[in-house]
Specification:
It catalyses: 2-C-methyl-D-erythritol 4-phosphate + NADP(+) = 1-deoxy-D-xylulose 5-phosphate + NADPH + H(+). The protein is α/β, with parallel strands linked by helices and about 375 residues long. It folds into 3 domains: about 150 residues, NAD(P)-binding Rossmann-like Domain (Rossmann fold, 3-Layer(aba) Sandwich); about 140 residues, no CATH class; about 70 residues, RNA polymerase sigma factor, region 2, helix turn helix motif (Rna Polymerase Sigma Factor, Chain: A, Orthogonal Bundle). The strands form 2 sheets. It has a 7-stranded parallel beta sheet with strand order 4-3-2-1-5-6-7, sandwiched between helices. A 4-stranded mixed beta sheet has the order 9-8-10-11, covered by helices on one side. It is globular and about 55 Å long. It binds NADPH dihydro-nicotinamide-adenine-dinucleotide phosphate, 1-deoxy-D-xylulose-5-phosphate (DXP) and manganese (II) ion (MN). The site of NADPH dihydro-nicotinamide-adenine-dinucleotide phosphate (NDP) has 29 residues, from helix 1, helix 6 and helix 9.
Length: about 375
């Protein structure tokens, strides 16, 4: 029986993954090695019971008692804390969905790669913070990384059978998020509730706000560079309000191959689950006659300064990705908590990058996980200060 684990099982991507596992036969079709979550203990225990998971882990040690209580009478072991997450990731599995939000997903992802098998990667932060470490861990462990972020799954699918040397450039699309059509002057007054609604995708709150600020797309540009080994000048972003075309690969001979689909993450997750085969998925069929028209436009970097920052991060290399992500996570925490305005997030991240660029080792590639986490901590402190 195929062994699977889901990190971030209580979240939006994790929930879509569980939906696919359930539809494919659940515990009768898969051996569920580990499921993890954060604060949503009720949900974690419920899916662990349903899928007869070997272990359920919450990231929060103070919730271990609640988890044990919620799992009482089941065969699922309960554990808590970052070390327990890493231990669960070290349990051999054939397919691991990395769907924790934030840099917290980095250690479990690296641990899973050391066991071999497939890492289905939704946690874009892993590649932004530590792309070279992720690839090195996969090579050492004999693991395969498959993209789950919709644009990167789209690129991966469009590249199938193609030679990377024939690629001229790659375009990833951006919906434009909640404030796509707002006057720029109004953005300073944008509320957390307004930023937490997405025009097309149902996702967790953090990535939804990152879509509105385009930090999500900025992260995805860096993710594309790290995943596919593209040069920064080969990666373009186009605003595409319909979210039907997810990415397009353009070749040196003038041909372009685009990937289209309804905005439903179960396609990208299911593709990674069934790869290298394809199987029917519970995803709405694409009816272009009903969609009518597909529109595209250049992104305005005055509205979305995060895109310019992504270019600067790629040019700087080294620890810039880890600093960028950590500063962005801290700025997002501060926006959600009402400490800063929506429009203060990008200047805050830019200031942290500028402040930390002069520190020794900033331009050097990440040596190991601990050094990445040191830079992550320092950048959060700088951002909070
Ligand atoms: N949602 C989407 O459609 C897409 C998401 N992604 C990426 O996938 C990842 C997950 O996103 P999404 O599902 O929206 O996020 P959610 O917020 O919906 O879920 C995040 C998951 O991570 C858990 N979690 C939160 N903090 C920690 C922590 N410190 N340590 C361990 N686990 C933690 C949460 O637990 P709990 O809820 O129990 O607290 C939850 O299980 C992100 O990297 C995102 O960028 C990429 C493409 C699309
Ligand atoms: C589903 C997915 O992959 C998200 O990252 C999505 O792309 C977010 O939409 P935006 O295009 O608004 O960032
Ligand atoms: Mn995406």
């Amino acid at each position: 029986m195929r062994r699977i684990s889901i990190f971030g099982a209580t979240g939006s991507v994790g929930g879509s993954g569980i939906d696919l596992i359930r539809r494919a036969g659940g515990a009768d079709a898969y051996e569920v090695v580990a499921l993890t979550g954060g604060r949503n203990i009720r949900r974690l225990a419920q899916v662990a019971r349903e899928l007869r998971a070997g272990i359920a882990v919450t990231a929060h040690p103070d919730l271990l008692g609640d988890l044990r209580e919620a799992l009482r009478g089941s065969d699922t072991e309960a554990a808590a804390g970052p070390a327990a997450l890493a231990e669960a990731a070290s349990r051999p599995a054939d397919w691991v969905l990395s769907a924790i939000v934030g840099a917290a997903g980095l250690r479990p992802g690296l641990q899973a790669l050391a066991q071999g098998g497939v890492l289905a990667l939704a946690n874009k932060e892993s590649l932004v913070c530590a792309g070279p470490l992720i690839h090195a861990a996969a090579a050492r462990g004999g693991a395969r990384i498959l993209p789950v972020d919709s644009e990167h799954s789209a690129i991966f699918q469009a590249l199938a059978g193609e030679d990377l040397d024939s690629v001229k450039d790659v375009t990833i699309t951006a919906s434009g998020g909640a404030f796509r059509d707002w006057p720029v002057e109004r953005l300073a007054a944008a509320t957390v509730a307004e930023a937490s609604t997405h025009p097309n995708w149902a996702m967790g709150q953090r990535i939804t706000i990152d879509s509105a600020s385009m930090f999500n797309k900025a992260m995805e540009v860096i993710e594309a560079k790290e995943f596919f080994g593209l040069r920064p000048d080969q990666i373009r972003v186009l605003v595409h309000p319909e979210s039907i075309v997810h990415a397009m690969v353009s070749h040196v001979d003038g041909g372009s191959i685009a990937h289209l689909g309804a905005p439903d993450m179960r396609h990208a997750i299911g593709y990674a689950l069934n790869w290298p085969d394809r199987a029917p998925l519970p995803v709405p069929a694409l009816d272009l006659a009903r969609v009518g028209s597909l529109t595209f436009r250049e992104p305005d970097e005055r509205r979305w300064p995060a895109l310019r920052l992504a270019r600067e991060v790629m040019a700087a290399g080294g620890m810039a990705g880890a600093v960028f992500n950590a500063a962005k996570e801290q700025a997002l925490d501060d926006f959600i908590a009402g400490r800063i305005r929506f429009t203060q997030m990008a200047p805050r991240v830019e200031a942290v990058l500028a402040a930390m660029a002069g520190r020794a080792g900033f331009g050097a590639p990440p040596a190991d996980l601990d050094s990445v986490l040191d830079w992550d901590r320092a950048a959060r402190q700088e951002a909070a200060a």
